[in-house]
Amino acid sequence: MGKTIELATFGDDRGYLTVAQDKIPFDIKRVYYIYGAKGKRGGHRHKSTTQALICLNGSCEIYMNNRGEESTVILDSPSKCLILDKDDWHTMDKFSEGSILLVFASTKYDVEDYIDEPY
Q: Which of 52, 55, 64, 98 has the smallest C-beta neighbourhood within 10 Å, fewest atoms?
């Protein structure tokens, strides 16, 4: 099941800097981001891809189901990172106005890697 990790964040009167280096537990092969979302995204799991999700701006809700074990996580800070296992069937929803969801993936895009049927 997915797990949330805190990324190292450093701040002073100039602002904040958050570091993901050495925290993402896989080699990153693909990077993409979702913004302007008007409804649910996702609705799948993977055969081999692990992902790391960070809401850079605003907030969103991530629902996960791993073989009947269900969980929901609110991503509402750019220092909060959700690691999704390949077996985590997930949806992303309830995007706040202006939200930006950054995703790091362990594999390049492959349509054959997607499993759309929920558990």
A: 98
- Domain topology for 3-115: Jelly Rolls (2.60.120)
**Residue 114 is encoded by which pair of tokens?**
């997607």
| Residues facing residue 71 across a β-bridge | 64
Q: Where are the chain's structural domains? A: 3-115
Q: Which DSSP category does 62 fall into?
A: E
Instruction: Give 52's contacts (C-beta < 8 A, 6+ positions apart).
Output: 20, 24, 25, 26, 81, 82, 83, 84, 103, 104
Q: What are the structure tokens assigned to 79, written together? A: 């220092």
Give the pLDDT confidence of 76-110 residue by residue, as tens digits.
999 999 999 999 999 999 999 999 999 999 999 99
pTM of the model: 0.95
